[in-house]
Amino acid sequence: MIEPHAPAPPGTAPPWPGPVRLPVRPGVGRFLVLAGVFVCAACGLVYELELVALASYLIGDSVTQASVVLSVMVFAMGVGSLLAKRLRRHAAAGFGAIEAALALVGGCSAMALYAVFAWTGDWGGLWANGPRCLLVAFSLAIGLLIGAEVPLLMELIQRIRRQDAGGAVADLFAADYVGGLVGGLAFPFLLLPMLGQLTGALITGTVNAIVGGALVLGLFRRDLSRRARWLLVIANLAVLGVLAAAAVLVDDFERAARQAVYGDDVRVALQTDVQEVVLTGGTRGRPLDLFLDGRLRVSGRDERRYHEALVHPAMNGPHTRVLILGGGDGLAAREVLRHPDVRRVDVVELDAGVVRLARTDPALAALNGHAYADPRVHVATADAFGWLRQARPAAYDVVIADLPDPGITASTKLYSQEFYGLAHRALAPGGRLVVHAGPVSSRPRVFWTVDTTMRAAGLRTVPYRVGGRDEGFAAGPDRVTGASLAPRDWGFVLAAADTTPSLGLDPHAPPPRTLTGASLAADARTVAPTRITGMPPSTLVHPEYAN
After folding, report:
1. What is the CATH number of domain 302-530?
2. Are 504 and 520 in contact (CB under 8 A)?
3. Is residue 275 part of an annotated ligand binding site?
4. CA distance 35 to 50
5. Which of 89, 403, 522, 536 has the most CB atoms lying inside 10 A of its own CB?
6. Which pLDDT does position 408 carry in this prediction?
7. Nearest to 539 by CA among 440, 432, 406
8. What average pLDDT does the segment 21-39 reach?
9. How many CB atoms sit inside 10 A of residue 472's CB?
């Protein structure tokens, strides 16, 4: 226990308690403290990245979620540093308590957020909604605790060996920043792919609790009263017990949460290098659904309406060489292959896991007509933007952009003027480009921004839509809660370089099952009155798909 000192006169700093009694030499003690700073900093950054990743996955719009989480955390760190000033005279006990709390809050944050998402599903609407407030609350709590670490660690370093403040700050921040680098690299390259978000957060919390507890109870135990030592031992054991129990139950928790999100008919659930992929249905007469990162991308109830409307109008003309950007599920390729004079189909898909599933899963392979078994189909695992930059000019008669909705931040560059310029270059004379541009009824500004951007790239466009979609299929970047906001259609833009393309169907190919030339023309006429003029094109540095 630190011996009491007489209070300092008003306006003066409190007296230095003097060097702490260590079980090791001061040089070794300083090294151990800096090693603890290194580990705790790595854990703190993992918590931040885990919140950003989980929020982006569950809510969408990664730029907004990253901005909210990081700005709230930085603010809270400043507040935590100020509050920690009151604990400086009891730095060892305070630091031990803070690390135990941080390990518990940070380690359990992913499970808590995912549980609220799975069993409430209420991520739309205003920021006042409970799950979003929970995200902000975790960001605030973790930021407060991380911010409180630095003043206490500074005090502990100075208690070991008094030195000038500049040197102590340099040592402390060097260990902190290097630890942040390791944590920042470990999260995407080690924790996330090998352990997943939930288990990765629990392991990080466990490491945080062990290192923080060992540092205080091992190195600074003589600076604590007997009661303080026992309280810290009990607190750390309780935290480790909670994290261990959660780690044991995490698989059952994930299954239960996944069923709450996707229903009881989950057949396949895997985490690829790019995203989470879930398949439901496809057996015993139940329609197959494909979810990517929690969003329904293929609905067996109405995917044919979408893919026929996407592919067949673009195939009304020369189409011996076809490029499909995205479409790893093979469904767009299925429609392309219905045209017998197609000679080559190149599918450029970022996620090899989706292609592998489309080849091997019996239900999905049956739905896509075993398109990948056709020797005319060639697959490249690549980013569509980067792949187009390397493509030969005039290489394709038809380019089909079967991509996620443009409002999703990760897809914004694939709806930019630069991207359409690259696609324009890849088109042969008389070639056509078709783009899925999101729902017209619920996101008209996004839809017409796509049209404006394609025109800015030198393309001549014909916008059209088809209705009757399943409200969940290929939803936009945020889940919608009101029935009036649910998408009721798919919007597309057909474009050509030389002349305005005619909107119709290839008379020499088998007719689509759900689409006719008359219905296509009628749906196109309903789009024209919704046009929004005067909108700027979207570019890489000025994306315009936020609304």
Report:
1. 3.40.50.150
2. yes
3. yes
4. 23
5. 403
6. 64
7. 406
8. 88
9. 16
Beta strands 427-438; 489-496: pairing state: antiparallel
Contact 175, 211 (CB under 8 A): no
Within 10 angstroms of residue 199's Cβ, the number of other Cβ atoms is 18
Q: Is 402 a catalytic residue?
A: yes
Cβ 103 vs Cβ 208: under 8 Å: yes
Give the CA count within 13 Å in the CB-facing half-sphere of 297.
24
CA distance 191 to 206: 13
Distance CA 61, CA 543 (A): 13
Length of the chain: 547
Residue with the bigger pLDDT between 392 and 8: it is 392
Q: Strands across the sheet with 321-326, in order?
A: 377-381, 344-349, 321-326, 396-402, 427-438, 489-496, 460-467
DSSP lists the bridge partners of residue 349 as 381
- Mind listing the pLDDT tens digit for each residue in 277-335? 999 988 877 889 998 877 788 888 889 999 999 999 999 999 999 999 999 999 999 99
- How close are the terminal C-alpha atoms of the chain, in Å? 59
Q: Residue 421 and residue 477: Cα distance in Å, rounded?
A: 25
Model pLDDT, residue 525:
87
90 is in an annotated binding site: no
Domain with CATH 3.40.50.150 in the chain: 302-530
333 is in an annotated binding site: no
Confirm whether pTM is higher than 0.85: no
Q: What is the tens place of the pLDDT at every residue in 45-61?
A: 999 999 988 877 776 66
Which residues lie closer than 8 Å to 26 by C-beta, 6 or more apart? 19, 160, 161
For CATH 1.20.1250, the residue range(s) in the chain are 26-261
Q: Which residue has the higher pLDDT, 296 or 393?
A: 393
Binding residue per annotation — 349?
A: yes
Amino acid 327: pLDDT: 92
Was 384 annotated as part of a binding site?
Answer: yes
Mean pLDDT along residues 406-426:
87
pLDDT tens digits, 434-487: 999 988 888 899 999 999 999 999 999 999 998 765 544 443 333 333 333 446
User: Does residue 495 have a known ligand-binding role?
Assistant: no
Identify the H or E element spanning 402: strand 396-402
Q: What's the token pair of residue 536?
A: 């700027």
For residue 514, the tally of other CB atoms under 10 A from its CB is 15
26-261: CATH class: mainly alpha
DSSP letter for 383, please.
-
**Which candidate, 128, 126, 109, 478, places its Cα nearest to that of 294?**
478
- Cα–Cα distance, 460 to 496 (Å, whole number): 5
Distance CA 300, CA 277 (A): 16
Q: Which of 176, 223, 361, 402 is catalytic?
A: 402
Instruction: List 292's β-bridge partners, or say none.
Output: 277, 295
